[in-house]
Design brief:
Length: 232
Amino acid sequence: MPIEHSNYFRNPKPRPLTVPKLHHATFMTMDVDAMVNFYELVCGLQPVYYAEHAAWLTNDEANHRIALLRLPGTHPPVDKPHSAGLHHTAFEYATFNEWLDNYIRLRDQGIVPTICLDHGMTMSMYYADPDGNGVEIQVDAFGDWGMSKEWMWASQEFSEDQIGPQFDPELLVQARRNGLDPDEIHRRAHAGEYLPEVPRAELTFADPWPARIEADPTLTEGVPFPPMPTES
Ligand SMILES: [Fe+2]
């Protein structure tokens, strides 16, 4: 059914006359270097400005997409996986093959996703950054934002299950090698045919902070405040 026939697209929605676009997300961190390295490796984000106290990174035409602030007074989170706040940011590949190739590239460097989900409208791999924030790398299952939005709004499937089954990315690599096309792989993944041997029980990421604090107990003192200017 063409999307213009749907109620969602026909009905006006209240909104400002002109809308701002989502531009960037900013994290407080205690280790700018580790975060820059990770986001550069995983998403190809490169610093536009980079210093010990802050960095601004982009991987497209915007001046930045992710910013990192090492603000004085910042201290480690307590039970990061179960704390309210940001769960993940997300980046999207235009094609299934680029998306799966990125998985292989990262796997070969020892970086593997925490959890992989076929949400129905996207196939998504979730990585954890050094601070325990998630990063979703996805590909749109419809190859068309209008269609995937319509599917979320209108489909019975999404109303019954907003998460979808997990998949083992190695099984996707194998399926592609066997000549299956992306639509077929998505169909099978969403039907639960590529489940991992040991599915993950939670949608949370591992907590890196206890081990980091053990390695460097001074972290608990927080990022130091700059010294007060001395009076002359
Ligand atoms: Fe997401």
